[in-house]
Amino acid sequence: MDAERRDEALTASALDGEIRAALDVDPSPEFLARVRTGIASEPRQAAWRWPWMFAAAGAMATLIAIAIVVSGPHEVSSVLPADRMPLQARTVAPFSQIVPVASGFSRTERSAEAFALQPREPARSVHAAGRQPREPEVLIDPRESMALRRLIAGTREGTLDLSAALQATTPTTMDLPPLSEIAIPVITIDPITPEAGDEGARQ
Amino acid sequence: MHDQAVRLAGSLIGVEPELEQEFEVRLVESSTLAFRVAFSVLRHRQDAEDIAQEAVVKAYRGFRQLRDRDRFRAWLVRMTWRLAIDRQRNDRRRTSREQENAGPPIPPAETATEAVDARERAEHLWAAIDTLPEKLRVVVVLSNIEEHDIGDVARLLGLPPGTVKSRLFLARQRLKEQLQWMLSDETRR
Predict the structure, then answer these.
(1) Cα(A20)–Cα(B25) distance, rounded to whole angstroms?
(2) In the A/B pair of chains, how many CB contacts fall below 8 A?
(3) What CA–CA distance (Å, rounded) separates B99 from A25?
(4) How many CB atoms lie within 10 A of CB B116?
(5) CATH number for the B106-189 domain, one of 1.20.1250.20, 3.40.50.2300, 1.10.10.10, 3.90.220.20?
(6) Cβ contacts of residue B16 below 8 Å, gap of 6+?
(7) Rounded to an integer, what distance in angstroms lies between the CA atom of residue B134 and that of residue B184?
(8) B107 vs chain A: nearest CA distance in angstroms?
(9) Of A64-68, A82-86, A112-116, B49-53, which gets the smallest average pLDDT?
(10) Closest CB from A22, A35, A59 relative to B56
C-alpha cells in the first residue's frame, strides 16, 4: 500500500493532479460582490479624473494666454526710413557718455552714430516708449537737420572735402585799418549874463 | 484647434465608462485566478479573498496607466503573488495559527479512511511546495491553475518559455524527492 502510494507520488502527472486538486478552490459567492464594493468605494474622481482635470486646466490656461497675446493692442510699426525719422525723437547722450576724441569733426564718441540718424536699434513700440520716463524733447529746426544730413552724407560719400575744416586750427585775425589821429575841438563855455530889464530885479 | 477641443471634450466625457466596462470584463475573468494565486500562498480562504480584493483594487487604480491591457492578467497575477507573499511574511504567526484551525483543502473522499488519507496527502503536498524556492513555487502553482500550459505561465510571469519549462522540471523533481522522503519517513514510523 505504501509502496503503491510512493510510486504514485513519483509520477509527474499524479503530482500535478494532486496540486491541481489542492488548488481547485473557488472563492466564496460574495467575493466578487465584495471586490465590486471595494472598487466602488475607491475615490473614482481623484483616481481617474484628476489627470484629465489638470490637462484641461492647462489647456485652458494656454488658450487664455494665447488669446491675451493675440487680442492685445498691436504694436505700431515705427520703423521709418532714415531720411524720414524726426530728429526730436532722439535723445541726447548724457554727459557721462561724452568723451573727447581725436577727430576734429566728431566731438563725442556717439556723435557719429547720433547724427547718422539711421535706426541701428530696433524701433521701439508705443508701449515701450510709454513705459520709459519721458525726457525733454530736443527740438531741432528741420532745415538744420536737413543740412546736417547732407553734410554727413556728403562726408560719407566723399563728395565733401572737409580736410580744410579738419586742419584748421585757429581763425586768422583780421587786419584792422591804421589808427588816425582824432581832432577834438576845444570846447568853450561862455558865462551866462542876465539880460537888462525888470525881470529878476528886486523891487 | 476646434478639432482638438472636440477630441478633448469627447475623451473627458466618453473614456471613463469605456474603461469601467473594460475593467469589469477583466475583473470577471481574472478575479478567481487572483484568488487561487493568493490561496496557493496563504492556504486560507478568507485571507486569500482579502489579498485578491486588495490586488484587484490596486489594479483598478492603475488600470488607466496600463499601456498593454492584454497583459492585465499577468499584471494582476504578479501583484497578487507579491501581496500574498508579503502577507505571509509579515503575518506568518497568524497564518500558521489559522492553518492549524482550518487545515489545507481536502479533496472529496467517499469514506472516512479515504478522507484521512487525502488530508495527509494534502498536508504533505503543501509542506513539500512550501520548501520550494519562490521562483519554482510560482511556476508550479500557475501551471496547475486553470490548466495553464508552459506558454500561459511564461506570459503570466513575463519569462521565456524555456525558463518556465526548466523551472517546472526542477520544481517537479524537488517535489518528488520531498514527497518521497516524507512518505518513506512516515512508513518508517
Answers:
(1) 25
(2) 106
(3) 15
(4) 12
(5) 1.10.10.10
(6) A48, A49
(7) 26
(8) 6
(9) A112-116
(10) A35
CA atoms within 13 A on the CB side of A1: 3
Mean pLDDT on B28-35: 90
Of residues A24, A95, A93, the one with CA closest to residue B125 = A24
Q: What is the CATH number of domain B1-103?
A: 1.10.1740.10
Between A31, A42, A52, which is nearest B61 by CB? A42
User: Any residues with CB less than 8 A from the CB of B105 and at least 6 apart, and which?
Assistant: A22, A25, B43, B122
What type of residue is A16?
Answer: D
Euclidean distance between CA atoms A165 and A145, whole angstroms? 20
Q: How far apart are CA A83 and CA A80, in angstroms?
A: 8
B91/A55 Cα distance (integer angstroms): 42
Higher pLDDT, A89 or A40: A40
Rounded Cα distance, B76 and A108, in Å: 81
Q: Where in chain B is the domain with CATH 1.10.10.10?
A: 106-189
Cα A92 to Cα A107: distance, rounded to the nearest angstrom: 13
Q: Who contacts A120 (Cβ-Cβ below 8 Å, separation ≥6)?
A: A113
**CATH 1.10.1740.10 domain span(s) along chain B:** 1-103
- Residue among A31, A48, A59 whose CB faces B49 most closely: A31
CB contacts of B183 in chain A (<8 Å) are 2, 5-6, 9
The x, y and z cell numbers of residue A165, run together, are 575744416
Percent of all residues in chain B with a pLDDT value above 90, rounded to a whole number: 35
| Residue A28 to chain B, least CA–CA distance (Å) | 8
Q: Copy the grid coordinates of residue B103.
A: 487545515
**Which range among A81-85, A143-147, B65-69 has the greatest average pLDDT?**
A143-147
What mean pLDDT comes out for the span A12-41? 86
In this structure, of A70-74, A177-181, B152-156, the range with the lowest mean pLDDT score is A70-74
Place of cell 576724441: A101
Task: Report CA-CA distances (Å) from A6 to B40, B111, B168, B178, B185.
Answer: 24, 21, 21, 11, 11
Secondary structure tally for chain A: helices H, strands E: 9, 0
Q: Return the closest-CA partner of residue A22 out of B140, B113, B107.
A: B107
